[in-house]
Amino acid sequence: MKRLSLILLLLFAAWGGLRAQPALTLLQKGYDLGSIPEDGGTVSRVYTFRNSGNAPLVVVRAETSCTCTKADISKKPVMPGQEGTVTVTYNPRRQHGAFNKAISIYTNVPGARYVVTLRGEVTVR
To answer: Where does the record locate the signal sequence feature (predicted)?
Structure first.
């Protein structure tokens, strides 16, 4: 009987461990930069997220929709309940008119992709 109880306890503990997963909750999903001058230099915004899961969250990569947009990530794990950031920088040089850029964020959450946006309008002086 003790052996059966020990086996059941170990199976239950292993099953509970398999359920531990990170979860990303975005605190900002998009920014509107408004009107920005083409010759005004780069503009950066910080997107904050929270690990609302029960295991460490790691941002694996961030992909941008254009070479005019860059995303900086930290590969340092974000513990459950803690916050992390992704910094997105937009270069308006040689861009004209309205823009709407999508940034895809990939983490260690299985099968998940998170999208944030950056929009505005580039003006020529």
So the answer is: 1-20
